[in-house]
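Notebook entry, structure prediction.
Reason for the run: the old model in the group folder had no record of what sequence produced it. Starting over properly, with the input documented here first.
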Amino acid sequence: MRFRSGRDRDNTGVDAVCSYRTNDSLATFDREKVHQELSTMTNGVTKLGHYSLERNSLYVNGFPLTDTANTRKPVLTEAPAKLGYRLSFRIVNENLTNPDPQSPEYKAAVESIGNKMNQLYRQSNLRDQFLNCSITRLRSVTQPDFV
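New structure, fully documented this time:
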């Protein structure tokens, strides 16, 4: 996989869709719980394997974790398992040089990042609920534009 140095270059935005198990005890999706766990597992949203992450770039279903999340009850929103939830984050130390989704480089990056995300989830407190994360897009970004 060929990346270019992240210094003074665009960063790589990563978009993913993750799915989870639902049953009576897991009937609702807690966006803030997912955000907190991913933040913990990535050392404060700074590391995913050898990738360095932009600290404030983690979005779950289009929302960052707010400062007030630690002082108020989590907001629960229902999300069907077949749709899962969306994740976005930014890699700052390595950037894709070929943004063509059909290129071997792009495919290798998607596989590498996806494997690291799935491994992270399987080692987290969310492992009993987690099914899978699929990378849906890699993009070059100079400013955060997460959705």
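Summary: The beta strands are 3-5, 11-20, 29-30, 47-48, 51-52, 59-60, 76-77, 85-91, 94-96, 130-141.
The old model has been moved to the deprecated folder.
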